[in-house]
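Bit of a strange request maybe. I'm writing a small parser for structure token strings and I need a real example to test against, not something I typed by hand. Could someone generate the tokens for this chain?
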Amino acid sequence: MQRNIIILGPPGSGKGTQAKILAKKLNLVYFGTGDFMRQEAKKGTDLGKKFEDIWQSNKAGLIPDELVDELVRRKIRELDGKKGIIFDGYPRTLAQVEALSKNVNSKSILVLNIKVLAESLIYRMGTRKVCSTCGQIFPAPPADLKACPSCGNDLIQRQDDQPEVIRQRISIYEEQTKPLISYFQSQGNLIEVDGEPAIGEVEKEIWEKVKNVY
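Reply from user aminoacidic:
Good idea to test on real output. This should exercise your parser:
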């Protein structure tokens, strides 16, 4: 049976970075929910316009479950099903867990929970920059780095990386997403990961814990 992986963690925990690294190691499809949303908004699709409207009106950018679930259903249908999927940014609520179980076999899911202190999250997100074109993330880049080394386009700070938004996003995570940890613990498929060290150290810990159970 093909295994699928969910990476949980608060905003700024590095789950996107680690998801992409692990996807390459295990030959999985990286499912970046936030990236897919931004792509839909950039293309101006009906669903993308709904995302954009919510982002403009809600500083925390909280998208209703039904819209996220619709996006996920569409994207899963587009995949050929021959590879497992590593989900980054989904599910975020228990309702989304239930919706996901209708699209993938729940018995195939392994869950990683990256733990990071709130003060570390605020620093990381408040200092990071993102390429405006390719989406590459640069944690605390030097002041003289103005353009993306990969594609040469401008580096920006996302709206949801502003200090007041960061605190709101952490609060939402605490309220909505942390219950998922208890749920997956009860299912016996959750692995805890310390997200405080440097990216390379976190990568090593994840690989040591995953390689023997995946």
